[in-house]
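For reference, the entry.
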Amino acid sequence: MKSKAKELLDRGIAAMVAAIEIYNKPSFPYRTEAFSILAINGWELLLKAKLLADNKNKLSCLYVYESRTISGGKKSNKKYIKRTDANNPFTHSLSYLGKKLTENKILHQLAWDNIQILIELRDSSVHFYNQSPAFRARLQEIGAACVKNFATAVWDWFGRALSEFELHLMPIALIDLPSSVDGFILNAEEKNFLSFLEHFEIQEENHTSDYSISVNIELNFVRSKAKGALSAQITNDPNAPAVRLTPEQIRDKYPWDYKMLTAKCQEKYSDFKVTKKYHDIRKALEINAQYGRIQYLDDSKPKSGKKPYFNPNILKEFDKHYTKKDDIQLA
């Protein structure tokens, strides 16, 4: 039988998957607003699941308590569970949960900022009746960060990877990706919302984290010379056709060298040491194209000098072997 926390986690993931499915529909007039409503619901369920998990699945931690008026108009010292009109227990709002978990250093500040922006989007959606392409592009960036933050939180808190759901907002879902925001006219409400967003983004500049307020999106279309050109992805399959990456593409995908990876591990883990354990894990991962790449000084000569480079996603594998400093602080 599933615990209450696990049930809420599953429902939260289901809500986020539904939000993405709605957003990725090719034509849906209320798409952005529907996404924000479902995504906010997903976050609320996830935060409640985390609070339950940290309180041994005691439902009382989710309930709102209040005093009752007694004789003489005084308030009782005893607190009672607040009830809804249907006489069900009244649970804490997303705003309360977000503030509480952020103050306790459980929810990252950037993730909470992104959620607040989504809440503002939901509450202000009545004003966004004729969205400009520039405005839709910013909403795409907020939504992409929301999904990324959600998947990161699920992994950090419950150790569950959401790769099975392929949680991605499709950039192509935007009808027009503008190359410049200045070329479009925004109504007053859109300007107010973007100013609200920029206020948070200024704060993000001082953070280095797996969480984001918004994610920059660049979409480039390259015309293939062959009509029957096939799509490609990185694989270890020796029978797959070879694809050559430019030096710039390699640096973008594998930006960390050994020194940088080691520094990131020292920064993130409380029990990390540069020992044989670390080297064994690193060497096993650096030959996996998802996490690393061996760069030879001369690609035509495998015996020439070489240097490993790493993708930041490699830290998710190190999470399985070391204790994150955040976990120590929360214990």
About this structure: The first strand starts at residue 65 and ends at 69. DSSP finds eleven helices and four strands in the chain. The mean pLDDT is 78.
